[in-house]
Design a protein that fits this description.
This protein has 173 residues and is mostly beta strands. It is 13% helix and 35% strand. The chain has 2 helices and 9 strands; from the N terminus they run E-E-E-E-E-E-E-E-E-H-H. The strands form 2 sheets. Strands 2, 3, 4, 5, 6, 7 and 8 form a 7-stranded mixed beta sheet that branches. Strands 1-9 form a two-stranded antiparallel ribbon. The protein starts with a strand and ends in a 5-residue tail after the last helix.
C-alpha cells in the first residue's frame, strides 16, 4: 500500500517514490514466477489528476522456474511497467473503469500482478537452443551432446517386426 496523504489533491502535484516490498503469494504461472517474499523494487511517480492519482513507473525483481524443455531450474529478472489510475473514493467512476483508492491508500498488488504475469514467458527456457530431454530415457541432451540409443526394437513391439519383414519381400506374381 502507498500512502498518498502527502500528495495534495491539487491536479498537477506529483512526487517520486522508490521502495522495496515483498512479493505476494502466487505471483506467476505454474512454470515460472516471483518467489513469495522475494524483494520487488518499485520506482514510481505519483501524480494527482482531477479523478484521482495516476501511478506510473516500474517494478523489478527475480523470477524462478524451470525450463520447459529440459526441466532444469531457471532464474531470470523481470522489469514490469506500471501505469494505473486510482480514483478517489468519492469519485463517480465505475469500479470496472479504474482502481479505487481506499482513503489515501493505493493497493499496487492487482496492477503489479497483471503486469508481471502478462510479461512472463509462456515456456521459459534455460537457453534459446536447449535440446530438451531424450524421448527414450529422459537424459538431458545438453549434458550429453552425442547421446543416442542403439536402433533396437522396443520389446513391446517385437511381435510386429515379423509383419514388417513379410511386407518387404517381393510379391510373387
Amino acid at each position: 500500500m502507498i500512502d498518498t496523504h502527502e500528495l495534495s489533491r491539487r491536479a498537477g502535484s506529483q512526487r517520486e517514490v522508490s521502495f522495496t516490498a515483498v512479493a505476494p503469494a502466487d505471483l506467476g504461472i505454474d512454470v515460472i514466477g516471483v518467489p513469495e517474499g522475494d524483494p520487488i523494487q518499485f520506482d514510481l511517480r505519483l501524480e494527482a489528476v482531477v479523478e484521482g492519482v495516476l501511478v506510473t513507473g516500474s517494478a523489478s525483481g527475480r523470477l524462478v522456474g524451470e525450463c520447459a524443455r529440459c526441466l532444469v531450474d531457471v532464474e531470470d529478472e523481470f522489469l514490469a511497467d506500471v501505469q494505473e489510475l486510482y480514483v478517489y473514493p468519492e469519485s463517480d467512476a465505475e469500479p470496472d473503469e479504474a482502481s479505487r483508492m481506499e482513503g489515501d491508500l493505493i493497493d499496487l498488488e492487482p496492477a503489479l500482478r497483471d503486469q508481471v504475469v502478462l510479461a512472463l514467458p509462456f515456456q521459459p527456457l534455460c537457453s534459446d537452443d536447449c535440446p530438451g530431454l531424450c524421448a527414450e530415457c529422459g537424459a538431458r541432451l545438453a549434458d550429453e551432446p552425442g547421446h543416442k540409443h542403439e536402433d533396437g526394437v522396443d520389446p513391446r513391439w517385437s511381435a510386429l517386426s515379423g509383419l514388417l519383414q513379410q511386407d518387404e519381400r517381393p510379391q510373387d506374381r
